[in-house]
Amino acid sequence: MSESAAQKIYTKSGMARENPFLGKKVLHVGCGTAKLPGATGVDVLKLSGVDVVHDLDKTPWPFADNTFDVILAHSVLEHVDSVLHFMNEAYRVGKPDARLVICVPYFRSVDAYDDPTHRHFFTSRSMEYFLDDGNSLAAYSYSGARFKKIGFWYGWPHPSRNPIPWFLKKTAHRFPHFYDQYLSLLLPVKVLFWDLEVIKNKNSK
């Protein structure tokens, strides 16, 4: 899957309204009433579109190892008890080379603090603890789950037609530490997106 899975889900005109992954097995965790077309939806509540009712904090999730080609976690990680347990389960149920697409509120955003059920806050480096790229944060070995970063975006994962947010996002991507530490105090984005690839032995079962 060479094209960004995140950009297929989060299109230039909004969330995908048709199945963007024909022939693929897709899991939408915490889908609520807005399940991605073609996906298996799992949520703690039995809502319209939910296929499997399950509390994501209870592991293992009710899916076999190496089941899904794409896993979508939209506005979920900020709610779970343990980000580590969540990433471990997403890794387990993902096939080798599966894509994990994540959207979370940015830690500077008011949206991150509005909801009293939010437990975690995220910067541009939050997923580096799980990346298989030799970075210093992965060396902490909090988790055995390993991913390759296919894409990362401050804000919507497509270029903006407005030159001001376009320049802001371009600057943030070029200087992420400077943006997180300083510039975001004045001009915070609302959300962060990651497109991660599961790194496994392809012979694993």
How would you describe this structure in keywords?
7-stranded mixed beta sheet, Rossmann fold, single chain, 19% helix, globular, alpha/beta
Q: Can you tell me about this structure?
A:
A seven-stranded mixed beta sheet has the order 5-4-3-6-7-9-8. The chain has a two-stranded antiparallel ribbon with strand order 1-2. The protein is α/β, with parallel strands linked by helices and 205 residues long. It contains five helices and nine strands; from the N terminus they run H-E-E-E-E-E-E-H-E-H-E-H-H-E. Strand 1 and strand 2 form a beta hairpin.
Quick recap:
With 205 residues, this protein is of the alpha/beta class. It is built from five helices and nine strands. 19% of the residues lie in helices and 24% in strands.
Write the layout of secondary structure elements.
Elements: H1 5-9, E1 10-11, E2 14-15, E3 26-29, E4 40-43, E5 52-53, E6 68-74, H2 83-93, E7 94-105, H3 111-114, E8 147-154, H4 163-174, H5 176-181, E9 191-198
